[in-house]
Write a structure and sequence with these properties.
Elements lengths: L1 H21 L5 H12 L5 H13 L4 H24 L4 E2 L2 E2 L1 H4 L2 H21 L3 H27 L4 H28 L2 H25 L12 H4 L5 H7 L4 H13 L4 H14 L1 H20 L6 H15 L3
Antiparallel strand pairs: 1-2
Helix pairs in contact: 1-3, 1-4, 3-4, 3-8, 3-15, 4-6, 4-7, 4-8, 7-8, 8-9, 9-14, 9-15, 11-13, 11-14, 14-15
Length: 320
């Protein structure tokens, strides 16, 4: 992602130092776990969106770096807790915290990260940052619970699907763009517009993740995993609504009772592909991507805006 480093490479390096500093602990075990978390960090898309959103509207400052750190702290905390809830022992081809230590330690580590985020914000009077991100954490929890509720009955329609991913995934990216913009502009109208921009990107991002489940590439998680976990994603929802009743009953039976059988899962993925579920989801993803790009066009063109546009396209064109 050279296009990112050309514009905010220095800012990202400084952010990494500040983030590492923000998670340090005097407790030896915690400090060792924090170093492990930093070592296995992902692409850091959310901090990128924070910094670019800030730079689009002004000069990156200490408030911006705290905003990026706060987003990353909360995001990492939710991932640690998710791995416990999902009994997942691997993330991004690394062992999860609960795999290397145990569930109790993992829950406490997630709590520690959340508390560090709260302290970072309150100690610097970043109450707007905290308010925006607290709303996102609330939405993420609601989205997870809604998904669990609907998964039990497999009665997920497209509107509920979008409600879930808007809460689970898009809310955090929306908040990242909002607090980034606020850190330099202090303008509520701009902040609101950037929040909507981030939500559109977040929805497109999640649909792309859903599409990976039907591919063959190594994306850091097993393909077909959503089916094994009985998650009804957009390609599958479209398929269930566009096949005959006999096929629909068969698909639902497999999801409920035979979701660990590789051949049965393959039948589902083949049916989704042949019914046009992949293409339908990809088209929806591109609509949200284009709506996000349209919002950016409302701001003055600049190398920063062009980089932000490239990052939006990366979220839908990425291979993993």
């Amino acid at each position: 992602m050279d296009f990112i480093n050309n514009i905010i490479g220095n800012e990202l390096k400084l952010f990494e130092k500040k983030f590492a500093e923000s998670v340090k602990s005097d407790t030896r075990l915690l400090d060792a776990i924090m170093k492990y978390i930093i070592k296995r960090k992902g692409k850091q898309l959310r901090p990128m969106f924070v910094i670019l959103s800030a730079k689009l509207h002004g000069t990156v400052n200490e408030s911006t770096y705290r905003a990026a750190a706060l987003v990353e702290l909360l995001h990492t905390a939710t991932l640690v807790h998710d791995d416990v809830v999902d009994d997942s022992y691997e993330r991004r081809s690394f062992f999860s915290i609960n795999a290397l230590w145990n569930k109790k330690i993992a829950v406490l580590v997630g709590d520690y990260l959340l508390s560090k985020g709260l302290l970072l914000a309150t100690s610097n009077n970043d109450f707007t940052h905290l308010h925006i991100l607290s709303e996102a954490v609330k939405q993420m929890s609601e989205g997870e619970l809604l998904q669990l509720q609907k998964t039990r009955k497999l009665n997920l329609d497209e509107n509920i699907y979008f409600e879930i991913i808007r809460s689970k995934t898009a809310s955090l990216l929306a908040s990242a763009c909002a607090i980034g913009a606020y850190s330099t502009s202090r303008d509520e109208a701009i902040t609101k517009k950037m929040k909507l921009f981030g939500e559109k990107v977040g929805i497109a991002f999640q649909i792309k993740d859903d599409l990976f489940d039907y591919g063959k590439a190594d994306v850091g998680k097993p393909t077909g995993n959503d089916i094994k976990e009985k998650k009804l994603t957009l390609p599958l929802i479209y398929t269930l609504n566009n096949v005959d009743q006999a096929t629909k009953r068969k698909l639902i039976y497999i999801i409920k009772n035979e979701n660990k059988d590789k051949q049965k899962v393959k039948f589902i993925t083949d049916t989704v592909i042949n019914t046009g579920g992949i293409q339908y989801a990809a088209n929806k993803m591109n609509i949200y991507r284009d709506e996000a790009l349209e919002i950016l066009k409302g701001f003055t063109n600049s190398p920063v805006r062009e980089t932000l546009e490239s990052l939006v396209r990366y979220t839908t064109d990425r291979k993993y």
